[in-house]
């Protein structure tokens, strides 16, 4: 009886030890650039966080997509777009991230594992996100109650407020003015309002209610229906 109890205890301890070890290895594998074992280098997966159009249109091959959030940032329509949703004559507005201690920004993280996919994704994103002057590496969470991130070192594109590095930055304005600008602007990737409404839909699909964005979408709909009434 006693020996079978000691045996179970031993088994449990061994199991917990090997489970913790495999968890440690998995975390190492996901979070670091690469690691070397005795014979070869193990390449790590790359993760990209999307909080704007990347949520509904990745545009590159990926192996996994997780819905979740990053901490201490909020999504704001403060970036001017002259290449996608506007023109140099009449810029549109797209989202960027603003530091906001205590807040969170929901979106989607994409895992890219194959070396050829990583290269293609980076080449593609560097063109698509060329008006975003900064890349940050952040902790990504999937569980609002978790204190440790699901993934660390997730890459994210940010348009900074530094006008020298980011001449297209527009910054804050009233909800009415931002919505008016979005309703009017159109660029090579389509109308700016389509970007706003698609982002609203994509966020609702992942269960996120973003007040700044919903206020803008409601105001844009109000402007559009008012102009329809005036025209008819
Ligand atoms: C992003 O989606 O993460 C960047 C902003 C955008 O392309 O809309």
UniProtKB/TrEMBL annotation:
Its cofactor is Mn(2+). The keyword Lyase applies. One of its GO terms (biological process) is glutathione catabolic process. It is an enzyme of class 4 (lyase). The gene is LOC107962505. It comes from Gossypium hirsutum (Upland cotton). CDD domains: GGCT_like. Belongs to the gamma-glutamylcyclotransferase family. One of its GO terms (cellular component) is cytoplasm. This is glutathione-specific gamma-glutamylcyclotransferase. Its EC number is 4.3.2.7. One of its GO terms (molecular function) is glutathione specific gamma-glutamylcyclotransferase activity. It is found in: Cytoplasm. InterPro entries: ChaC, GGCT-like, GGCT-like_sf.
């Amino acid at each position: 009886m006693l020996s079978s109890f000691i045996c179970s205890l031993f088994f449990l301890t061994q199991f917990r030890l090997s489970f913790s070890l495999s968890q440690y290895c998995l975390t190492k594998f996901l979070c670091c650039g690469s690691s070397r074992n005795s014979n070869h280098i193990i390449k790590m997966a790359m993760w990209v966080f999307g909080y704007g159009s990347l949520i509904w249109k990745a545009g590159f091959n990926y192996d996994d997509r997780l819905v979740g959030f990053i901490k201490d940032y909020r999504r704001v329509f403060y970036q001017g777009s002259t290449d996608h949703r506007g023109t140099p004559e009449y810029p549109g507005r797209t989202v960027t991230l603003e530091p906001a201690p205590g807040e969170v920004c929901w979106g989607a993280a994409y895992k890219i594992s194959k070396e050829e996919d990583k290269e293609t994704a980076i080449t593609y994103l560097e063109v698509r996100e060329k008006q975003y002057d900064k890349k940050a590496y952040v902790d990504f969470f999937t569980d609002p109650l978790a204190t440790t991130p699901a993934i660390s070192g997730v890459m994210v594109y940010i348009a900074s407020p530094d006008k020298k590095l980011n001449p297209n930055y527009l910054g804050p304005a009233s909800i009415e003015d931002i919505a008016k600008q979005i309703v009017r602007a159109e660029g090579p990737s389509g109308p700016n309002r389509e970007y706003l409404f698609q982002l609203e839909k994509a966020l609702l699909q992942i269960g996120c209610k973003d007040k700044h964005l919903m206020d803008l979408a409601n105001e844009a709909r109000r402007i559009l229906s008012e102009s329809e009434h005036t025209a008819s």
